[in-house]
Amino acid sequence: MKRLLTACLLAIVTLGLGGCGYNTLQTTDEQTKSAWAEVVNQYQRRADLIPNLVNTVKGFASQEEKVLLGVTEARSRVGQIQATPELVNDPAAFQKFNAAQGSLSSALSRLLVVSENYPQLKSDANFRDLQAQLEGTENRITVARNRYIKTVEEYNVTVRSFPGNLTAMAFGYKPKAQFTVENEKEISSAPKVDFNAPPPAAK
Q1: Which of 77, 104, 119, 146 has the greatest number of CB atoms lying within 10 Å of its CB?
Q2: CA angle, residues 161, 86, 185, in degrees to nearest 5
């Protein structure tokens, strides 16, 4: 009899949690963690390409020290930030992470612009391969960020809507940080690679 009563109570509690949005909170929270992990993974993929890219450019355009140093320093700042799942629960830390990634995107864009002035660099097989990998990674970053945006929107709606908001407060769930309009401008202008562009005229 006691077992039956316990089973009934568990069933009631389970149904109650499901009806108040607890299961949805759990599901969407896990989805945001997964989406964030993919964002971080693609950013790390980009960071891993940079040392070879910088060294390759340096071999043909060592005089562009300022641009090369800018990329290296921007990558270093990115590496100093621990992009843990908890980071998305801290708006200030989240913004700092995005600012660092935005600076790196800008530094990479300047590097690619400078490379246009060196026909031998542009024709180097290793450089072209690195450019292709970088462009592919930038596209993956955009896809990963868009997925994160959608999952966080769903999660935040659940956290803020009744009766999910009551459950969220009871279990400590809070809205997660989201990319801003400025962030979206950054990813909409990812570095472009045009292999068909004519080399600059000889001076």
Answers
A1: 104
A2: 75
| pLDDT-based confidence at residue 21 (cuts at 50, 70, 90) | confident
Whether 167 is in a domain gets the answer yes
How many angstroms separate the CA atoms of 99 and 79, rounded? 13
- pLDDT tier at 194, thresholds 50, 70, 90: very low
According to DSSP, residue 88 is labeled G
Cα–Cα distances in angstroms (integers) from residue 118 to residues 1, 72, 172, in the given order: 84, 20, 56
Gap between the Cα atoms of 195 and 90, Å rounded: 41
Of 57, 54, 46, nearest in space to 102 by CA: 46
Distance of alpha carbon 200 from alpha carbon 92, whole angstroms: 43
Mean pLDDT of 56-68: 94
The number of folded domains in the chain is 1
Residue 68, token pair as written in the block: 């090369």
Per-residue pLDDT of 65-98, as tens digits, reads 999 999 999 999 999 999 998 999 999 999 999 9
Boundaries of domain holding 160? 25-187
- The verdict on residue 203 lying in a domain is no
User: What's the half-sphere exposure (Cβ side, CA atoms, 13 Å) at 16?
Assistant: 8
More confident residue, 53 or 201: 53
pLDDT at 192 over 60: no
Q: Residue 9 domain-assigned?
A: no
For 55, other C-beta atoms within 10 Å of its C-beta total: 12
The enclosing domain of 175 has a CATH number of 1.20.1440.20
